[in-house]
Amino acid sequence: MSQPVKATRTQRNRSNSSDGGETAxxxxxxxxxxxxxxxxxxxxxxxxxxxxxxxxxxxxxxxRAGVARRTFFRHFxxxxxxxFPDHDDTLVRAAAVLDAAPAHENxxxxxxxxxxxxxxMYAASPAVSVERYxxxxxxxxxxxxxxxxxxxxxxLFTRYLLGHFDEGAHHDGDDDPLLAEVAASxxxxxxxxxxxxxxxxxxxxxxxxxxxxxxxxxxxTFGTGIGAGRPAVSVSTPSEEEDVMVMVARTDAxxxxxxxxxERALKR
Length: 268
Hints:
Helix content: 55-70%
Largest sheet: 2 strands, antiparallel
Oligomer: single chain
Number of strands: 2
Strand content: under 5%
């Protein structure tokens, strides 16, 4: 009678890799990368706070973090970039929110959900965020780096909103492309306004509730304007012989308007 054959260690490793081990390894590598970036950022912030931004060198930041100079440059291109270790990963998470948005969701609501990833990044470490805010107010180079980071989010959201409209509308007098760009800027501005207010309050208060209030104002201003060139509700009847009615409504169409349209169609 033959005996069962035990898998070798190599075979088991291959099996684990094919079953998702490679993905797990990628996640571990990403986590290790982020941990090192945060370690370098903490060292940079400590030195900036104690001896000043201009007097601090990359070599000193690396030494404080216990790594070599070349390790620093594997993670950051400059010392001003070092105090923003999470923006790259947060931008990826925000983009993932947009990519996974349900088809029925208003694009502006999707963008509001996406930028919440940025607020969560700051809210995860209030003390660090408050200190970073103080530094960016005092050091022009850090302020410029922060502005550049904000611009990346704004470009991401603008592209997303523009992707929901026909590019030909630029030539047809449709205001949707203009509204898309203005709305994206409004979402980012509302977020930054709430964030600065929270940071000036030393990270105290329910920042997510404040953000939801700000987004409600943006939605009220732009939510019904985007797509205004298209009818909110349309009804068609395939033929006089068929007892069928087909209605198409935008997800942001007011319920009252939808009901009135249905009633008018049924009375025909």
